Automatic annotation (TrEMBL), chains A, B:
<keyword id="KW-0068">Autocatalytic cleavage</keyword>
<feature type="binding site">
    <location>
        <position position="447"/>
    </location>
    <ligand>
        <name>substrate</name>
    </ligand>
</feature>
<feature type="site" description="Involved in the stabilization of negative charge on the oxyanion by the formation of the oxyanion hole">
    <location>
        <position position="118"/>
    </location>
</feature>
<feature type="site" description="Cleavage; by autolysis">
    <location>
        <begin position="190"/>
        <end position="191"/>
    </location>
</feature>
<feature type="site" description="Involved in the stabilization of negative charge on the oxyanion by the formation of the oxyanion hole">
    <location>
        <position position="117"/>
    </location>
</feature>
<dbReference type="GO" id="GO:0006526">
    <property type="term" value="P:L-arginine biosynthetic process"/>
</dbReference>
<comment type="subunit">
    <text>Heterotetramer of two alpha and two beta chains.</text>
</comment>
<keyword id="KW-0055">Arginine biosynthesis</keyword>
<comment type="pathway">
    <text>Amino-acid biosynthesis; L-arginine biosynthesis; L-ornithine and N-acetyl-L-glutamate from L-glutamate and N(2)-acetyl-L-ornithine (cyclic): step 1/1.</text>
</comment>
<keyword id="KW-0963">Cytoplasm</keyword>
<feature type="binding site">
    <location>
        <position position="180"/>
    </location>
    <ligand>
        <name>substrate</name>
    </ligand>
</feature>
<comment type="pathway">
    <text>Amino-acid biosynthesis; L-arginine biosynthesis; N(2)-acetyl-L-ornithine from L-glutamate: step 1/4.</text>
</comment>
<feature type="binding site">
    <location>
        <position position="154"/>
    </location>
    <ligand>
        <name>substrate</name>
    </ligand>
</feature>
<dbReference type="GO" id="GO:0004358">
    <property type="term" value="F:L-glutamate N-acetyltransferase activity, acting on acetyl-L-ornithine as donor"/>
</dbReference>
<dbReference type="InterPro" id="IPR042195">
    <property type="entry name" value="ArgJ_beta_C"/>
</dbReference>
<comment type="similarity">
    <text>Belongs to the ArgJ family.</text>
</comment>
<keyword id="KW-0028">Amino-acid biosynthesis</keyword>
Length: 447, 447
């Protein structure tokens, strides 16, 4: 059973963190575009980055820094320009961003991690960024998480934020996270970013291992294998401000912390999948009976990533043939005579044989899950300038309500369950349906 | 230089082949749905089949037959029911189909290869099929290729057919092919099929090797890695009726024959890619400078299969960022500082640096290629019942014109060229753009 509770505050829920988000003027749209997360004390830092051969300058910068020393005080994120494919000048811009912020924060430049998102090939507007730093730093606040979450998005429709609390020994420990991304068949070109904060004390190698495993069970399960953009990154800071004993090796405390970290990442990953461009529902694919967890995860990912399955779900069509087809081509062997497929509570295929089921009711299930999710989503859309301004001003009296609606939008996935044999392997993946609007958004996105 | 010429006749262009296509009543739509290709003499046979774990009964049947003995007299193909996920009964239906046809053709059942396409989970309507066999056999004709091509399609918009002729020694040798498939992000659930005939004499192992390599350079380059449906198959017969000396080992004759076979397969593969659901143009991605042909092909396939690239092309947006992003995540290493990207004649990126180019002209290039291709496509759409009836009646006086329009629809691809370094590896892949209609077709396709 989950041994934690949801709390408010996102990345500033853990002790000793502040955050800010402002409108610097980097985006043509005039919406918030510069975010900062700050730890009052030195934090250990772990990161998982894009595996693409084409990487933004900030990705190489962070990887090099963390390899040298897995510690940081701040994460700076600009939205609008990806600073990818910008050559030597792009690298210099990243260094200059860190230097300018370090001066304002009175910390060494190497304590600052940098993330960028936006249009590939465009340099950061450095004059705009540098001019905005004083306001950004003075906006840092203990309730600044939503403002930061608002300032890292590009095409996202909703904020993605979560914080959980558990007990380690007799003291509360919290992990918070924010994310941006509007994941579909592939992560949107403008990147998937996630920043996680934690007030436990953990050893750096253990924290890095936990984060890698958590990413494999969350963010890596919302994309088809190998898909990654130029700027993808997940950064996690842990500052020890909960004053719990340091967790330095495997054991019950480590397990508890890792489970909570994984839940934070899974929640944010699902929120990204649900926010897929033009999507009307979240799809959750659960695979059991595979030879290994790896094999099960691969099958789950392939089904969740299949355009034909996604189109069928959008058409409210309980099309088990497409599910079977996607599972079959996932590149991992199983015996088709052992294949079971369920959609919600409807058993569509048993031991490789199609079952008689109530097609109208199964279609109604698809419709109903989409309606529930869409109704909750409609409450939290990032459409109003007033709302953006409220967030930036820290007027977060509506935070709890927004958080509840956000959770509600993920609580009714279209659930596809596959059994592929008698093996011990299990895996889960998430996706969303494929609608007309996906094409519209991606055909009309201006470069 | 290509050492062949285009001739009419599709799979019946090579000597000693006849073909037929009729409306048996298998499809609810009442369009042609049963095809037969027949060799007057014993032919050697090679096949390349789906690698999916979920396979139609006919796929297992053909694979087993060809492993036992790589020879055949006939290919029977039914459209409407895929006969996949139909268990033991499905296997029996395949055997019964072969037996019934063998009796009518007076040949052994094991000389008949079977292919099916249509809805997964549905058995072939055996009574309908068996009742139609006499008419099918009596329709066999030396100009029956278009009728057969018409009877194997499901959602295809156009017929896919080609025949080429070259000289081996002092005698003409021909290879013909027909195909069905409407390939998009993934091959359509209702399968990619291709049947190839040849009147050269080749040794079975060499013919199988040639076909495998030709498939790798053609059909396997219109899908993203590993994608395959339950029923995919490519079957090639060679009957030796050209009376040329048997080709039994590597050498200039073998090379010539393989080059022509590869061209036939590449033409049909491009036609499938162009006929992608809702597509408005063909996309051709050429990659050079990779470490190996394999690496180059993988990058080409990833770019051609990227939904973001496809959406941008549909939006007539010369979005090099998405091209670079797709290349980067293809899973094969290269130095991003050596990346060159061109769209048609427009150099978009050189040595990893974005170039200044005439954006409006590049967009116009995309528009113009699509208009040319769409205009040719509109001449050959499979919309008229009259046309279907003409084809079935063998009234093929318009064959040549249709063939020319079909070639024209492929002659103006949107061309994306990538250089990824100084290596010797080269590869080509094909795809099409992603339009609103893709979603419409796949959301509304009735299971």
């Amino acid at each position: 059973m989950a041994d934690w509770q949801v709390v408010e505050g996102g990345v500033t829920a853990p002790k000793g963190f502040r955050a800010a988000g402002i409108t610097a003027g980097l985006k043509p749209s005039g919406t918030p575009d510069l975010a900062l997360i700050w730890s009052d004390s030195d934090a250990i830092a772990a990161g998982v980055f894009t595996t693409s051969q084409v990487r933004a300058a900030c990705v190489d910068y962070c990887q090099d820094l963390l390899e040298e020393k897995p510690a940081a005080r701040a994460i700076l994120c600009n939205a609008g320009q990806a600073n990818a494919c910008t050559g030597k000048q792009g690298e210099q811009d990243t260094l200059d961003s860190a230097s300018a912020l370090a001066k304002a924060l009175n910390c060494p430049p190497e304590a600052i991690l940098i993330a960028s998102t936006g249009v590939i090939g465009q340099r950061i507007k450095m004059d705009v960024l540098q001019a905005a730093i004083p306001e950004l730093v003075s906006s840092l606040a203990v309730d600044g998480s939503d403002a930061a979450a608002r300032a890292i998005v590009t095409t996202d429709l909703v904020l993605k934020s979560i914080a959980l609390e558990t007990q380690i020994g007799d003291r509360p420990v919290r992990i918070g996270g924010i994310a941006k991304g509007s994941g579909m068949i592939h992560p949107n070109m403008a990147t998937m970013l996630s920043f996680v904060t934690c007030d436990a004390a953990v050893s750096p190698p253990l924290w890095q291992k936990m984060l890698r495993r958590a990413a494999d069970k969350s963010f890596n399960q919302i994309t088809v294998d190998g898909d990654t953009s130029t700027n993808d990154c997940l950064i996690a800071l842990a500052n020890g401000e909960s004053r719990t004993p340091a967790i330095t090796e495997a054991g019950p405390e480590a397990d508890k912390l890792e489970a909570m970290l994984t839940e934070v990442c899974a929640y944010l990953a699902k929120a990204i999948a649900r926010d897929g461009e033009g999507a009307t529902c979240l799809i959750e694919v659960v695979v059991t009976g595979a030879m290994s967890d790896r094999a099960a995860s691969q099958i789950a990912r392939t089904v969740a990533g299949s355009s034909l399955v996604k189109s069928a779900i959008f058409g409210r069509d309980p099309n088990w043939g497409r599910i079977a087809g996607a599972a079959g081509r996932a590149g991992t062997p199983f015996n088709q005579a052992e294949l079971n497929i369920a959609l919600g509570d409807f058993l569509l295929m048993s031991e490789g044989t199609p079952q008689v089921f109530d097609r109208a009711a199964a279609s109604q299930y698809l419709k109903q899950q989409a309606e529930r999710s869409t109704s909750a989503m409609s409450q939290i859309l990032l459409t109003s300038t007033q709302q953006a301004n409220e967030l930036l001003a820290g007027e977060s009296q509506q935070t709890f309500e927004r958080q509840a609606q956000s959770a509600e939008s993920l609580a009714h996935p279209v659930k596809i369950t596959l059994g592929v044999g008698g093996g011990p392997g299990e895996g889960i993946a998430w996706g969303c349906d494929l609608s007309y609007d996906y094409v519209k958004i991606n055909a009309e996105y201006t470069t």
